[in-house]
Task: structure prediction
Amino acid sequence: MLILAARPFPALQPYAELGPIFLHQKACKAWEGPGRPPILRTSPDYLVKGYTSDHRIRYGTGDIVASGDLDHAIADRLARPDIAFVDVRSARNNCFLTRVRAEILTA
Result:
C-alpha cells in the first residue's frame, strides 16, 4: 500500500484541503453496486462537508456523522441549492474518501 497526498480540487485556494489517500499495490475494481460502497461502511462515523459550485466550503455543513446517518446527511446537504457536492472524509485522519454530487443520487 502507498500513501500519497491528494488535493481533490481544481486549483489552490484556502478551502482546497490536502489530505492523505491510500493506494493498493494491486489494481482494484471501481464500485459499481447500488447504494453505499463498502469503504463507507467500515467506520462508525465520517466527516462530511458541503461545497459550493466554486469549490468553497459552505459554513455550517461540516459535521462528524454516524455511519447510520451518512446517507441522510449527504442527501440533506445536496438538497440545498447552494451545495454542488459533498465530500466524505475519514473522521479521524481526514483522508479523502469520496465526493458525492446530486446527479449521482438521482441517477
